[in-house]
Design brief:
By secondary structure, this protein is mainly alpha-helical. The protein has one domain. Helix content is 36%, strand content 5%. The chain is built from three helices and two strands; from the N terminus they run βααβα. It has a two-stranded antiparallel sheet. The longest helix has 13 residues. It is flat. The protein starts with a strand and ends with a helix.
């Protein structure tokens, strides 16, 4: 598979530490098994109260050819969690 562009995320540790444990779990109480960036970044974006910046530059390329990313392991699970 070709390499695709991914976005680098950074945030203040205080925001990360303020994520509620419940936000990291599905409705049935199980930990999310995929889509970690959304599970972590959406609460952080909410807590940042609009103090965030989008940088329109490429910092690295994500290698889809390794076979261990969420999309290749279980793309259906990744989509269900993201939805």
């Amino acid at each position: 598979m070709p390499q695709r562009i991914a976005h680098l995320r950074s945030f203040k540790v205080k925001l990360f530490l303020n994520i509620k444990e419940a936000d990291l779990k599905e409705h049935n109480g199980e930990w999310f098994k995929s889509t970690y960036d959304e599970v972590i970044c959406l609460p952080i974006l909410e807590m940042s109260c609009g103090r965030n910046v989008y940088v329109d530059e490429y910092f690295y390329l994500y290698n889809f050819g390794i076979g261990t990313n969420d999309l290749q392991v279980d793309g259906g699970l990744q989509k269900r969690i993201a939805d």
